[in-house]
Records
---
Amino acid sequence: MIGRLNHVAIAVPDLAAAAAKYRDLLGAHVLHPHDLPEHGVTVVFVQLENTKIELLTPLGPDSPIRKFLDANPSGGIHHICYEVSDLPSAARTLTEAGARILGDGQPRIGAHGLPVLFLHPKDFDGTLIELEEVNPELQPA
Ligand code: CO
């Protein structure tokens, strides 16, 4: 069902400092920050050769990562995202097996403009998993 690792998302208390570390110390290709008000985060994408890192910091009072940062003030890995080719089919398989989808259970449009859903971390060894529907025909080999 799952394909490539699409990204690892890291919640950070200081986005500029985190971006500078990835750019200047780790020598990574770091893109400019952008606000995603509908997701309650500001994000910096770090483009690696084989995947992406997303540095997230809260945007607005109702940010979904606020509580996470309250519990982890120095930041931490927030979720990992796997690609799937058919999100409704993946959702059906998972819910039939008893896995819980966060929210109303329906895919929504994620940070990359593609349908995503999140799986309950208690069902996956304490890891918040995002599934993103990616059309493999549109991907570079
Ligand atoms: Co994500």
---
Amino acid sequence: MFEKEKQRLVTQLIDQGYIKTDEIKQGFLKVPREEFIPNSMKDFSYVDTPLDIGNGQTISAPHMVVIMCEALDIKKGQKILEIGTGSGYHAAIVAQLVGRTGQVYTIERFESLAKKAKKNLEQTGCTNVIVEVGDGSCGLPEYQPYDRIYVTCAAPCVPQPLIDQLQDPGKLLIPVGNMYCELTLLEKTEGHTIAQHLGGCVFVPLVGKYGH
Ligand code: SAM
């Protein structure tokens, strides 16, 4: 139904330099963003903007999802943790990138959003995402260590539990700041972590023990 709009947005994201790899292009093409968006806003599914999903939260803009996926350099078969499920859309894209041999765990603090996200993922045939409810600022210790961890909300600083639950080697991507924040990539190798700043961004706050 939205195929033309989706193709147009992919071309735009390539031209703007956001989509760099074929894996991300294919992942983006496979996931129907309209299925993760409330009925009243479906017409805006392929406009490159965040949209309201309820509980004062948003589904991130497509270019931000792409920037984060490119920065994490996700491989087939990896185990990934997402903090901030929201609609489930970003997790669905990452699920495509890790493939059937990989696994995505995602944690959301609002039960109602987690329920909707589970439904969205089921309806779009996504079988390798597990949705949990809880305070993701403490990570999700049950399934650690993770090859990649990413946070879709702004944290005051990098929560230590996330560094501890990261595989070595591994990568952790997190917006650090208030609403206006710095997208920060931490790479763990041989027990050390090195941080790299990838640029400014705007996110809803991480709320919880290690959040705001
Ligand atoms: N990735 C989402 C998507 O594709 O729709 C967008 C996520 S939205 C920008 C950020 C989400 O983080 C919100 O749903 C919010 O409720 C959630 N959040 C904030 N603090 C959290 C916490 N401590 N643990 C889990 N989720 C949290």
